[in-house]
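hey so u asked for the seq, here:
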Amino acid sequence: MATIPPFVAKGTRIGQKQTVKAKKVVWIPVGSGEVTQFSDHEVTIAGQISILGYSGNMNIYLRLLDEDAAAASGPCVLRLNKHEDPQAVYRVNKGVLTVQATLGQYKQAISITPCDGGTQTECKLTGRVNETVHLEPVR
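ran it, structure tokens below
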């Protein structure tokens, strides 16, 4: 249950380029990135994004600390750019991996699930920032 690959696009791999899309009437590209680290319990994506008045780096790091494939919840580390919560927690429910973290002084949840038949990864942010983006592998 608690490994990262089931919650991201099929075929995700190190070195894979990603287009970041947000829905503004239709899904439009708002950034790009590259998967720089990927395993059962750890993923890193580095890139650039321009969304919600922010234009700059997009660096995401997630590590499931318990490394327990059978766990439905547990401790993790989440870092978005310079903001990191080494005491974040994750939960798996109904095919979605949700991370609860405090970034800076704000609570933020990020729910990750495959979408479009497993060809993309949906990241839904709720809390201080409310936005849904899709990471689409560049073919």
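The beta strands are 17-24, 26-38, 42-51, 54-64, 73-80, 83-93, 96-103, 106-115, 120-127, 131-137. The first strand starts at residue 17 and ends at 24.
lmk if thats what u needed
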